[in-house]
Amino acid sequence: MMPLMPTDAPQPSPTDAPPPASTGSGLDTFLILLGFAVLAFVASWLVPKGVFDVVASAASGARPTIDPASFRLVPDAQAGGAPLFGAGGEIGFLNFLFEGLVTGDRNAATVGLMAFLLIVGGAFGVVMRTGALERALRRLMAQGETGKTWLIPLLFVLFSLGGAVFGMGEEAVVFVLILAPVLVRTGYDSLTAVVVTYVATQVGFATSWMNPFSLVIAQGIAGVPILSGMGLRLVMWGVFTLAAAAIAWRYAVWIKAAPERSLTHALDTTLYRTPDQLSTLRETVRREDWLILAMVAVVIVWVAWGVTSQGYFLAEIAGQFLALGLVVGILALVFRSPGVTANGLAEAFRDGAMQMTPAVIVVAIAKGIVLLMGGDDPTRPSVINTLLDTVGTWSAVLPDWGSALGMLGFQSVLNLFVASGSGQAALTMPLMAPLGDLSGVTRQTTVLAFQLGDGLTNIVCPASAALMGSLAAARIGWATWLRFIWKPVLALLALAAVFVVAAQLMGYS
Questions:
Q1: Is there a contact between 111 and 331 (Cβ–Cβ < 8 Å)?
Q2: Whether the Cβ atoms of residue 112 and residue 319 lie closer than 8 Å to each other
């Protein structure tokens, strides 16, 4: 059986130490977005503003699209830059964040979307507080004592599902801490622990059909119905998850046959190959735990049914997730789940909503940046329209599927610098969505290119706190990780390119 990397790969040195678990490298997303806000403010004064005409087309349904040949610059009298202070509804640099927070209505990509994120975050906070998911996973991990190889792909699928539904990422750090010793003592290595936890969550995150952190935000900003295009994404999640799980299983079996092949063999031996008790993992999965997990599955199906057949949008989907939080909380109280109280569940909802606050602020900042440049209405003078005409001229020489591939490449590279999925969506979609209109790329495909480019490169992104925290939990240096994972990541990106091209050729919408 062929390995994922050469058998003579170098062993980690003592200097290849893991970074701190709490931080990634690079600037904070808020600082990056503030820099873009400054650039937008300057551009509003230096870049000529232009407008487009819009036309209705059968291909775009009810949404009018930009006529690429209609671009024209507006007279200087209509093209003044944004002021420093805004007053009377005028957008200025010092009030761009406020304007971003209050723009729109209940169905818009700002106010409505931000309310949705807070409610979903609170509901998931309640689910996580019950401990049902953690107890079920701990009990499953205890099966590693028997050395069953089916545990590897099963864990991968479960964590991929967590990434797709809950947007798991940072939560993987805890499970790396739990799982690494178990897998090493049963013949695998700490790299396998990171793969079946963190990597799995990012594969699910990148291919999700309902991820509130990236997909919902991107679709809302792009003007695409929330959670639309679910059929292809479900197929994509299944294909990516099974393919990546097979790679993980193949590597795990190869390492189990000869653990010294591992890049982390020396370190794993020092840290984990010592006598220890695994009884702490043998937690009893309670009756209410199974009911809670079943309720999560029911709501996933309910959301899919509501979106695809009933036209549910932000308000209705938020109501479904709130129902999940309420029912799960009641079950946990009725069955007296360990450590669960009514006050504790209320606190969990509040904490879950608070965890969504950075994503909410990112959406508002990005919307404010767009407003500083004149807004995203193609029929009103803006810097964005001028940029679209310039970039659209360049992309006109490419076929539409070539432009879609270019979007995938752009999002993949940008994610190395802007590791926040919500931040990248809010920053790029106001430009990418109308650029897709100009280039003949459907907006759904544009969102797909963002989604795949953002999620898959999280696996190697040194600016990702979740990745660096997971590596630190397993005592793996980033350089060692990169030597191990670069081939699988390239394979996943190649598969992503196939899906993006196929989506464009089939008119994915």
A1: no
A2: no
Rounded CA separation 386/406 (Å): 20
Write out the H or E segment, with its range, that includes residue 415.
Answer: none
Per residue in 453-491, pLDDT (tens digit) is 988 999 998 777 788 888 888 888 888 999 999 999 999
**C-alpha R_g of the chain:** 24
Distance CA 73, CA 63 (A): 24
Given CA atoms 494, 495, 497, 502 in this order, what sign does their dihedral have? positive
Phi-psi region of 201 (alpha: psi -120 to 50; beta: other; left: phi over 0): alpha
Q: How buried is residue 397: exposed, middle or buried, by Cβ count under 10 Å (0-12/13-18/19+)?
A: exposed
With the C-alpha atoms ordered 102, 108, 111, 117, is the resulting torsion angle positive or negative?
negative
Q: Which residues contact 270 (CB under 8 A, 6 or more apart)?
A: none
Phi, psi of 87 (to 5 degrees): -145, 150
Residue with tokens 């093209």: 79
- Vertex 231, ends 226 and 233: CA angle to 5°? 75
* Phi/psi of residue 388, nearest 5 degrees: -60, -45
Distance (Å, whole) CA 292 – CA 132: 7
What is the pTM for the complete model shown? 0.71
- Residues 415 and 407: beta-carbon distance below 8 Å: no
Q: How far apart are CA 494 and CA 509, in angstroms?
A: 22
Cα separation, 409 vs 426, in Å, equals: 18
pLDDT at 102: 84
Give me the amino acid identity at 407.
M
8 A C-beta contact, residue 374 and residue 386: no
DSSP H or E run through 414:
helix 400-414
> Exposure string (b/e) for 48-87, b if CB count within 10 Å is 16 or more?
ebbbbebeeeeebeeeebbebeebeebeeeebebbbeebe
Tokens standing for residue 292: 């809670």
Tokens of 3: 């390995």
Query: If pLDDT is split at 50, 70 and 90, which confidence band does 345 have?
Result: very high
